[in-house]
Design brief:
By secondary structure, this protein is an alpha+beta fold. The chain has helices spanning 2-26, 40-44, 95-101, 113-122, 133-146, 149-155, 167-178, and strands spanning 32-38, 63-70, 164-166, 183-188, 194-203, 210-211, 224-226. Helix 6 (149-155) packs across helix 7 (167-178). The radius of gyration is 21 Å and the shape is globular. Bound molecules: guanosine-5'-monophosphate (2 copies). One guanosine-5'-monophosphate binds at residues 38, 43, 65-66, 104-106, 115, 118, 122. InterPro entries: Ribonuclease_T2_eukaryotic, RNase_T2-like, RNase_T2-like_sf, RNase_T2_His_AS_1, RNase_T2_His_AS_2.
Length: 230
């Protein structure tokens, strides 16, 4: 009888313990990433001014804003690990591509490092169970290459020319070319017109492939939005 009881105890511990541990680790983990790209023309033509990076005016192309771990319920973790500050030496091989693909437009002008540091510390540290600092930045750069947003839009006749386009045509052209429906975020230009500001795509937990978004962020664009030049 004692042996039977003891083995029952062992068996129940074996069943219960793993679920306790997985519950506690998943509460610090995440389900997918938003890969967010910004249109520089829409960052710069608002009432708040922008500043070009110290390296000069960026290309007239979408730039990376960030790669953001998220939960399926729409909430997200942030600032997950103070013991892993941004360390430029871990990404020295990526700096040339970072300056090109992840330019900063905030004032005062900077090299981009303050922006990258912010994104790593707020968002990147929450994906450490899957990718390290080098992989975090490399993953974002690869995603940028893989998803040629401007190409997808211009192929459909949607150009950064200050004209208005239907939100539906913008979404459809990206879906047509990239295979997944994006989330489009708008902001307002200096005169108050709604315009194409950021495009969100969803990426699986490993950072290797695009997926259909499990949940979209909140916010609203008009049915017709401007695509300003840069
Ligand atoms: P805003 O309030 O301007 O939309 O967002 C401010 C910042 O909050 C973003 O730049 C980003 O760092 C964070 N943020 C906003 N929405 C989301 C979201 O849906 N997921 C994640 N992971 N971060 C978000
Ligand atoms: P998030 O909105 O991702 O939490 O924070 C963005 C932070 O990065 C802000 O503090 C903002 O000033 C800074 N930042 C630097 N460069 C840029 C840029 O080009 N675009 C955006 N959206 N934020 C930038």
């Amino acid at each position: 009888m004692k042996i039977l009881l003891a083995s029952l105890c062992v068996i129940s511990l074996l069943v219960i313990l793993p679920s306790v541990f997985s519950a506690s680790s998943s509460s610090e983990d995440f389900d997918f990433f938003y890969f967010v790209q910004q249109w520089p023309g829409s960052y710069c033509d608002t009432q708040k001014k922008c500043c070009y990076p110290t390296t000069g005016k960026p290309a007239a192309d979408f730039g990376i804003h960030g790669l953001w771990p998220n939960y399926k319920d729409g909430t997200y973790p942030s600032n997950c690990d103070e013991t892993k500050p941004f360390d430029r030496s871990t990404i020295s091989d990526l700096l040339t591509s970072m300056k090109k693909s992840w330019p900063t437009l905030a004032c005062p002008s900077g090299s981009g490092e303050a922006f990258w540091e912010h994104e790593w510390e707020k968002h990147g540290t929450c994906s450490e169970s899957v990718i390290d600092q080098h992989e975090y930045f490399q993953t974002a750069l690869k995603l940028k290459q893989k998803t040629n947003l401007l190409g997808a839009l211009t192929k459909a006749g949607i150009n950064p020319d200050g004209k208005s386009y239907s939100l539906e045509s913008i979404r459809d052209s990206i879906k047509e070319s990239i295979g997944f429906t994006p989330w489009v975020e708008c902001n307002r230009d200096g005169s108050g017109n709604s315009q194409l500001y950021q495009v969100y795509l969803c990426v699986d937990r490993s950072g290797s492939g695009l997926i259909q978004c499990p949940v979209f962020p909140h916010g609203k664009c008009g049915a017709e939005i401007e695509f300003p030049s840069f």
